[in-house]
Predict the 3D structure of the following.
Amino acid sequence: MVFISNKGGEMSKESLISIPRREALKGLGCGCAGLAALVASGAHKTVFGQSGDGDLSILLAALYLENEAIGAYETAIGSGIVIPTDIATVALAFQGDHKFHRDGLIETIKSLGGTPVDAQEKYSFGPIKSLNEILKLARKLEKGAVDAYATLAANIQNRAVLNYAAHVLADEVRHVTVLNAVSV
Protein backbone atom coordinates (compact mmCIF):
# COMPACT_ATOMS: atom_id res chain seq x y z
CA MET A 1 0.00 0.00 0.00
CA VAL A 2 0.99 3.60 0.22
CA PHE A 3 2.16 5.26 3.43
CA ILE A 4 3.08 8.80 4.44
CA SER A 5 6.80 9.16 4.11
CA ASN A 6 9.12 10.03 6.98
CA LYS A 7 10.15 13.18 5.12
CA GLY A 8 7.49 15.25 6.87
CA GLY A 9 5.63 18.14 5.35
CA GLU A 10 2.14 18.23 3.97
CA MET A 11 0.57 15.06 2.68
CA SER A 12 0.61 14.93 -1.09
CA LYS A 13 1.28 12.28 -3.69
CA GLU A 14 4.92 13.32 -3.61
CA SER A 15 5.10 12.77 0.15
CA LEU A 16 3.82 9.22 -0.11
CA ILE A 17 5.92 6.12 -0.55
CA SER A 18 5.02 2.49 -1.02
CA ILE A 19 6.07 -0.22 1.37
CA PRO A 20 8.95 -2.25 -0.02
CA ARG A 21 7.67 -5.66 -1.12
CA ARG A 22 9.96 -7.44 1.36
CA GLU A 23 8.58 -5.42 4.28
CA ALA A 24 4.97 -5.90 3.19
CA LEU A 25 5.43 -9.64 2.87
CA LYS A 26 7.27 -9.78 6.19
CA GLY A 27 4.34 -8.04 7.88
CA LEU A 28 1.85 -10.31 6.19
CA GLY A 29 3.82 -13.37 7.25
CA CYS A 30 4.07 -12.26 10.87
CA GLY A 31 0.32 -11.73 11.07
CA CYS A 32 -0.41 -15.24 9.88
CA ALA A 33 2.48 -17.18 11.41
CA GLY A 34 0.70 -18.34 14.56
CA LEU A 35 -2.45 -19.27 12.71
CA ALA A 36 -0.50 -21.10 10.01
CA ALA A 37 1.41 -23.10 12.61
CA LEU A 38 -1.82 -24.15 14.31
CA VAL A 39 -3.57 -25.13 11.09
CA ALA A 40 -0.51 -26.85 9.60
CA SER A 41 0.11 -28.89 12.73
CA GLY A 42 -3.38 -30.34 12.60
CA ALA A 43 -3.76 -29.59 16.32
CA HIS A 44 -6.81 -27.45 15.60
CA LYS A 45 -8.77 -30.56 14.59
CA THR A 46 -8.49 -32.10 18.04
CA VAL A 47 -8.78 -28.91 20.07
CA PHE A 48 -11.46 -27.26 17.93
CA GLY A 49 -13.39 -30.53 18.00
CA GLN A 50 -14.24 -29.71 21.62
CA SER A 51 -16.19 -26.58 20.63
CA GLY A 52 -19.92 -26.25 21.07
CA ASP A 53 -22.58 -25.30 18.60
CA GLY A 54 -22.13 -21.62 19.47
CA ASP A 55 -18.52 -21.65 18.30
CA LEU A 56 -19.57 -23.40 15.09
CA SER A 57 -22.16 -20.68 14.41
CA ILE A 58 -19.53 -17.99 14.97
CA LEU A 59 -17.11 -19.74 12.60
CA LEU A 60 -19.83 -19.96 9.94
CA ALA A 61 -20.46 -16.21 10.26
CA ALA A 62 -16.72 -15.56 10.01
CA LEU A 63 -16.55 -17.72 6.88
CA TYR A 64 -19.23 -15.57 5.25
CA LEU A 65 -17.18 -12.44 6.01
CA GLU A 66 -14.03 -13.97 4.52
CA ASN A 67 -15.87 -15.02 1.35
CA GLU A 68 -17.34 -11.52 1.04
CA ALA A 69 -13.91 -9.91 1.40
CA ILE A 70 -12.45 -12.22 -1.27
CA GLY A 71 -15.33 -11.25 -3.55
CA ALA A 72 -14.76 -7.54 -2.89
CA TYR A 73 -11.10 -7.71 -3.84
CA GLU A 74 -11.99 -9.73 -6.97
CA THR A 75 -14.59 -7.11 -7.90
CA ALA A 76 -12.13 -4.26 -7.39
CA ILE A 77 -9.35 -5.93 -9.35
CA GLY A 78 -11.74 -6.85 -12.16
CA SER A 79 -13.43 -3.44 -12.25
CA GLY A 80 -11.29 -2.07 -15.05
CA ILE A 81 -10.29 0.88 -12.89
CA VAL A 82 -6.59 1.66 -13.07
CA ILE A 83 -5.10 0.68 -9.72
CA PRO A 84 -1.52 1.75 -8.97
CA THR A 85 0.84 -1.21 -8.75
CA ASP A 86 1.69 -0.70 -5.09
CA ILE A 87 -1.99 -0.65 -4.10
CA ALA A 88 -2.82 -3.63 -6.32
CA THR A 89 0.06 -5.63 -4.82
CA VAL A 90 -1.18 -5.10 -1.28
CA ALA A 91 -4.82 -5.69 -2.29
CA LEU A 92 -3.80 -9.06 -3.71
CA ALA A 93 -1.88 -9.82 -0.51
CA PHE A 94 -4.94 -8.92 1.59
CA GLN A 95 -7.10 -11.11 -0.63
CA GLY A 96 -4.56 -13.89 -0.05
CA ASP A 97 -4.95 -13.38 3.72
CA HIS A 98 -8.71 -13.76 3.36
CA LYS A 99 -8.30 -16.94 1.30
CA PHE A 100 -5.98 -18.31 4.00
CA HIS A 101 -8.56 -17.44 6.69
CA ARG A 102 -11.33 -19.00 4.59
CA ASP A 103 -9.41 -22.24 4.15
CA GLY A 104 -8.63 -22.48 7.87
CA LEU A 105 -12.25 -21.77 8.75
CA ILE A 106 -13.49 -24.44 6.32
CA GLU A 107 -11.18 -27.06 7.87
CA THR A 108 -12.21 -26.09 11.38
CA ILE A 109 -15.92 -26.07 10.59
CA LYS A 110 -15.63 -29.53 9.05
CA SER A 111 -13.68 -30.80 12.08
CA LEU A 112 -16.59 -29.65 14.27
CA GLY A 113 -19.02 -31.62 12.12
CA GLY A 114 -20.41 -28.53 10.44
CA THR A 115 -21.00 -27.78 6.79
CA PRO A 116 -19.14 -24.72 5.48
CA VAL A 117 -21.22 -22.15 3.61
CA ASP A 118 -20.32 -21.66 -0.03
CA ALA A 119 -19.32 -18.27 -1.30
CA GLN A 120 -21.98 -16.41 -3.22
CA GLU A 121 -21.48 -16.29 -6.96
CA LYS A 122 -21.69 -12.52 -6.83
CA TYR A 123 -21.83 -10.01 -4.01
CA SER A 124 -23.52 -6.64 -4.40
CA PHE A 125 -21.13 -3.85 -3.50
CA GLY A 126 -22.89 -1.07 -5.36
CA PRO A 127 -21.32 0.98 -8.12
CA ILE A 128 -17.54 1.13 -8.15
CA LYS A 129 -16.36 3.84 -10.53
CA SER A 130 -13.09 5.07 -9.05
CA LEU A 131 -10.07 4.12 -7.00
CA ASN A 132 -11.51 6.11 -4.09
CA GLU A 133 -14.68 3.99 -4.20
CA ILE A 134 -12.56 0.82 -4.21
CA LEU A 135 -10.65 2.04 -1.15
CA LYS A 136 -13.88 3.10 0.56
CA LEU A 137 -15.36 -0.38 0.01
CA ALA A 138 -12.20 -2.10 1.26
CA ARG A 139 -12.10 0.09 4.39
CA LYS A 140 -15.80 -0.55 5.07
CA LEU A 141 -15.52 -4.34 4.75
CA GLU A 142 -12.25 -4.62 6.66
CA LYS A 143 -13.61 -2.40 9.47
CA GLY A 144 -16.79 -4.49 9.51
CA ALA A 145 -14.67 -7.63 9.86
CA VAL A 146 -12.74 -6.08 12.77
CA ASP A 147 -16.00 -5.19 14.51
CA ALA A 148 -17.51 -8.62 13.86
CA TYR A 149 -14.49 -10.61 15.04
CA ALA A 150 -14.11 -8.42 18.13
CA THR A 151 -17.82 -8.77 18.98
CA LEU A 152 -18.06 -12.49 18.24
CA ALA A 153 -14.88 -13.25 20.20
CA ALA A 154 -16.68 -12.46 23.45
CA ASN A 155 -19.03 -15.39 22.78
CA ILE A 156 -16.45 -18.03 21.85
CA GLN A 157 -16.36 -20.88 24.35
CA ASN A 158 -13.27 -22.81 23.25
CA ARG A 159 -9.89 -21.23 23.97
CA ALA A 160 -8.29 -22.59 20.76
CA VAL A 161 -11.12 -21.17 18.65
CA LEU A 162 -10.66 -17.86 20.44
CA ASN A 163 -6.91 -17.91 19.69
CA TYR A 164 -7.67 -18.66 16.05
CA ALA A 165 -10.12 -15.74 15.88
CA ALA A 166 -7.57 -13.48 17.57
CA HIS A 167 -5.01 -14.19 14.84
CA VAL A 168 -7.56 -13.41 12.16
CA LEU A 169 -8.64 -10.27 14.03
CA ALA A 170 -5.01 -9.11 14.10
CA ASP A 171 -4.86 -9.46 10.30
CA GLU A 172 -8.10 -7.52 9.90
CA VAL A 173 -6.82 -4.70 12.14
CA ARG A 174 -3.60 -4.58 10.08
CA HIS A 175 -5.67 -4.36 6.88
CA VAL A 176 -7.70 -1.44 8.26
CA THR A 177 -4.56 0.33 9.46
CA VAL A 178 -2.89 0.08 6.07
CA LEU A 179 -6.03 1.12 4.17
CA ASN A 180 -6.51 4.13 6.44
CA ALA A 181 -3.00 5.29 5.57
CA VAL A 182 -3.71 5.31 1.84
CA SER A 183 -4.46 8.57 0.12
CA VAL A 184 -5.02 8.97 -3.61
Observations:
- The chain has one domain: 42-181.
